[in-house]
Structures are given as C-alpha cells and as structure tokens.
C-alpha cells in the first residue's frame, strides 16, 4: 500500500495536509479521494491541474488509490505544452480544483471539478505494486517533454529510502512550498508525508517569511529557496528550531551552505535525484554533512562512475566519471519511446543519468555538472534547450536560434536565447511567445538579437563561445 497513513487505521493526530490556510484531515482526505475515485472509475489515465491546493492533493490521492495513472499538469503551462502532455499521455479526463482556470479554456478533454468537501469510498483492493502511479513530464536535450512512468513500487521505495536516511517519522512536520508536479514537491514533498504519516504544511510559494512562520521540523527547498532564505536572516533564524533542512534538485552553492549553518545552526542535508530515478544519493541525518557532497546511495540504490569507455573510474574524490544508477527507485521507461528508454540504459542495466560526478574512497559523491549543455537547471526546474529552440523557430520572424543556460546568482542558471531574425523583431515579443506556448519558467529571461551564431565545422552552434561573447559584450551585431 502506497499511502498507509490514509488506510483509516492511523489515528488523526493532526491535519494531514495544510496548504496555506486550507486544511484537510486524513479522514476527510480519504473521503474526498473516494469521491474522486468514483468520478474517474474506468479511466486508465487522468490529468490533474496541479495548482498548490488541497483539491490537487485530493485529486492525486484519488487517482493513486484507485490505480489510475496520474499526470500532473503545471498550472502555468502554455497551450502547446498542455496539448502535448494531454495527447501524449492519453489522459481521458482532467481533474481540476479550479475548472475555470484560463489555461483550461480550450482543454481538449473533459474537465472534472474536484471538490475537497465531497465524500466517497476509496476502492478496497489497492493497485498492484507494478501499476503506474504517476506519469511525470520532463525535458530532454531535444524535442518536447517525455512522459516518465513511475510505478507504485518505485515511489514507495523512493520515499522509504529517504525516510530511512533522514530518520523521517510521523513525529515530523514537513514544510515545503514547491510545485506539486515534480519529484521534489509532489513525490517527496506530498506523497512522502502521506506515506510516512507526518503532517505537511505546504506554503503555496516557498518564500522565506512563509517558511519561517510554518514551525515545522523538516524543511525541503531547492537551492534558490535556501539562498533567498539566507538573504532574510530573521526568517532564516526562525528555522533553528527545526530538526533537518534538506536541499536538492540543483547544486547548493558552498556560500549558501555556510550561511545557512551560520544563521540556523544546521548543516543542510544535500540529496541528489532525477525524475527518472527519484532520490538516489543523500547525506544522512546521523552522519557528518560535507559542503558539496550529496552523500552515498540511499537504501535499495547502487551508483557507479564510469569513463568514456565504460570502465570504472578511481574512487579518489577527484576523477570525473559519468554517473550511473541502478535500483528499486527507477522508472519503467519513457511513455511511447522504447528506443529513447533503451538509449538511457547500459547493456548491463544501469541508468545513464547524464550527470558527471566524483566519488571519494568513503563512497561519497559530488555532482560536478551535466554532460550536456542542453539541459538547463533554473530555480531547480529542468529545462531542455531544444524544446525552447523548437518553439522559437516557429515564430515567423526568427531564422536561427540557440538557447543556453547562463550562470545566475539566484537561480543557478537562467535561460538565455540568441536569435538571428528580422530587424523589426523585439525581444519582449519572443519572451511572451514562449510563455504562451510552454511554461512560465521556460521563457528566456534574456534575449540577444545577433547577426549570426558561431558554428563549428559541422555547423553545430558553439554555445560556450556564445556565452563567452555575451560575457565580454562582443556578440556579433548583438544587443
Ligand atoms: C521570471 N520572471 C520574468 C521572467 N522570468 N519576468 C520577465 N521575463 C522573464 N523571462 C518573473 C516571474 O514571473 C516572477 O514575477 C519574478 O520574475 C521572479 O521569478 P523567478 O525568479 O523565477 O522566481 P519565482 O517565481 O519566485 O520562483 C523561484 C522558485 C521556483 C524557486 C520558487 O523557481 C520554483 O518553484 N522552483 C522549484 C522547481 C522544482 O520544484 N524543481 C524540482 C524538480 S524535481 P512574479 O510577478 O510572478 O513574482 C528534481 C529532482 C530532485 O529536480 O532531485 O528533486
Ligand atoms: P529533474 O529531472 O528535474 O528531476 O532534474 C534532475 C537533475 O537535477 C539531475 O540530473 C541533476 O542534474 C540535477 N540535480 C538534482 N539534485 C542535485 C544536487 N543535489 N546537486 C546537483 N544537481 C542536482
């Protein structure tokens, strides 16, 4: 059973979930999920408009308890992305706490309103562990986002492994304010507390003031959240009373680690994961936490580093290798893409993460970066350069385009687009163009209109050259 705390056998010590001021008990959540289960009976896959709300929680839980695959849809999604996700996933219904949301105006499938106050019975026979629980859409280097199939068994294994590493129990109160459609906010941050039995306080947005006011024992954040908290020392100091601060989804800068320790007295736990693998490496609640280290494989997971020829690299804390993962938390493949799925696995069954790392003699990993510059991490969001390039190329005034991730103090990286196009083209137009079609965080924060793009002999755009030219202010005809 994925969510034993909702079985009806666990006493309701506190509200199960609080989103901003809206609360729901375990008993009421079970009943609301039961009403959702009745609405979606017979469907194979349902989409959920993943606003940060109790209605979203009821919709996701209703789907999971009835064995229907759930596809969370970002509420800031654009028209093209929404159409892709709904068509590709084959979702038959879309569940929404806000059925009148403008993004659903042209929704091609029936929209079913979710009312957290309704009551129903959840099906008694739970789905088999191999059943797909979630289909999470995630970006690759090229093309539209791919659907990552995650089984109930993988989700269970992933939550249990981190609960073990972090001594997470039902005595904890988890606080987080991350999106309810990615591994971090949804699987770890929502299904985690519902599985462990600890109450969740979701702050709707992860602002320093809201984290400070929440009074939890455990806090989750992406590095941008932690650096913003450090910039507000009074809010940061309020977290001193917590048991554990956890960072993940992108590298935590060393100065943020140090500031957080100075202000809260806590050395944060850093953990590493991916949509395809869930959380696989982590430092522990009961062990020293070193700056820059994402610790060791969690229970049920194995990790290794290999060189270009596939041979193991020495565990000396210095030699770079490609990080590969194996274990119980892995996905079941990309939906409809058996070839892409096969490409990501080695012949002996290890998943190629695409990240480069080192490992020490003691088995502690450090993530060095990504092998491909075409995967951008901005504010903890994984963004494929190719998807944004494809979108921009559909604009009638754009001739050539290159999208890169440029270093950014607050977000880690920011999306920057270099465009060769017609004279009259305005940068602002292109930002809105992307925002309308994809999601808000995918729109470029900077657009440079240039005369040409530097290319190598094979015609491939040299993205690192573009970044250097941008930094030195010498883009060809650039502004
Ligand atoms: C942003 N803004 C822009 C803009 N981009 N304005 C004009 N042009 C652009 N191109 C605006 C925004 O709309 C916002 O305005 C303001 O600038 C600040 O935006 P921001 O800097 O992006 O910050 P914010 O919206 O506050 O978001 C920061 C964040 C968010 C950290 C809260 O990035 C976030 O929720 N990240 C979490 C992503 C995540 O969950 N990743 C996990 C993936 S799972 P306004 O007016 O709206 O304020 C994973 C596995 C694992 O990775 O290991 O966990
Ligand atoms: P996503 O699929 O959105 O979950 O993003 C996964 C990617 O986030 C990984 O491949 C890494 O590049 C990055 N990532 C996650 N956690 C960390 C971390 N602790 N340190 C560095 N990178 C991380």
How does the major sheet shape up?
9 strands, mixed
Quickly give the structural class.
alpha/beta
Q: Please work out how many helical segments DSSP would assign.
A: 13
Sequence stretches where pLDDT stays below 50 over 5 or more residues: none
Report, as a whole number of angstroms, the end-to-end distance.
57 Å
Order of strands in the sheet with the most strands? 2-1-10-9-11-12-13-14-15
CATH architecture group name of the domain at 4-186: 3-Layer(aba) Sandwich
- Share of residues in helices: 25-40%
* Number of separate strands: 24
CATH level 4 superfamily of the domain at 4-186:
ANL, N-terminal domain
Q: Under the CATH scheme, which class of the domain at 4-186?
A: Alpha Beta
Approximate strand percentage = 25-35%
Which small molecules are bound?
A: malonyl-coenzyme A, adenosine monophosphate
Radius of gyration: 22 Å
Mean pLDDT: 95
CATH fold category name of the domain at 4-186: Rossmann fold
Shape: globular
Descriptive report:
- One of its GO terms (molecular function) is medium-chain fatty acid-CoA ligase activity.
- Residues 26-335 form the AMP-dependent synthetase/ligase domain.
- Pfam families: AMP-binding, AMP-binding_C.
- InterPro entries: AMP-bd_C, AMP-bd_C_sf, AMP-binding_CS, AMP-dep_synth/lig_dom, ANL_N_sf.
- This protein is of the alpha/beta class and 479 residues long.
- Among the domains are: 4-186, Rossmann fold; 375-472, GMP Synthetase, Chain A, domain 3.
- It has 13 helices and 24 strands.
- The strands form 6 sheets. It has a 9-stranded mixed β-sheet with strand order 2-1-10-9-11-12-13-14-15. A 4-stranded parallel β-sheet has the order 4-3-5-6, with helices on both faces. A 4-stranded antiparallel β-sheet has the order 16-17-18-19, with no helix packed on it.
- The longest helix has 15 residues, at 26-40.
- The protein is globular.
- The model has no long low-confidence stretch (mean pLDDT 95).
- The structure holds malonyl-coenzyme A (MLC) and adenosine monophosphate (AMP).
